[in-house]
Amino acid sequence: WKIVIHEAVDGYSRAVVFMKASDNNRAETVRNLFLKATEEFGAPSRVRCDHGGENVEVAALMENQRGPRRGSAIMGRSVHNQRIERMWVDVWKDVVNVFYSLFMSMEARMENVDEGILDIENDAHIWALHYVFLPRINHALDLFSVQ
């Protein structure tokens, strides 16, 4: 469905710093979310990221702002980031699962119908899915974040 959820959690308080669904996994998107969060909460001492290409600009910002060789951007496998991995379990259960089930049913073939109402190979269908559901997913993520 080409929907990506980006999330940052404060390692000390476990507060959600940002959580947003978007239609891409670009480094620019993550950087913009990070910059907006630093305007609201201030810059962190360190960030922990996986090695995904979407995190390179955040790592570069941290190295530039806090200085090199001090561990400003700790890169590693996401399984070592226990707080965010645990959060994903709850995000799936409380938010994503609802949309996943809906989208799967929209794709499903129904009786007397050759195909479902959503064709993931059709760019217009994906555009419409994003147009209709990204705001709803983000609203659900916002509600989850403040609980």
Highlighted features:
147 residues; alpha+beta; Nucleotidyltransferase, domain 5; Integrase core domain-containing protein; RNaseH_sf; Integrase_dom_put
Structure description:
It holds the Pfam family rva_4. There is one protein chain. The strands form 2 sheets. The protein has a two-stranded antiparallel ribbon. The mean pLDDT is 90. 51% of the residues lie in helices and 13% in strands. It has one domain: Nucleotidyltransferase, domain 5, CATH 3.30.420. The chain is α+β, with helices and mostly antiparallel strands and 147 residues long.
CATH architecture: 2-Layer Sandwich
The proportion of residues forming helix, as a percent range, comes to 40-55%
CATH fold label: Nucleotidyltransferase, domain 5
* Oligomeric nature of the chains: single chain
Order of helices and strands: EEHEHEHH
Number of helices: 4
**In what range is the share of β-strand residues?**
5-15%
Distance between the termini: 27 Å
Radius of gyration: 18 Å
Extended strand count: 4
Largest sheet: 2 strands, antiparallel
**Low-confidence spans: pLDDT under 50, at least 5 residues?**
none
Strand arrangement across the biggest beta sheet: 1-2
- Average pLDDT over all residues: 90
What's the CATH class label? Alpha Beta
* Principal-axis shape: elongated
Class by alpha and beta content: alpha+beta
Domain Integrase core: 1-145
Protein name: Integrase core domain-containing protein
Pfam family, one: rva_4
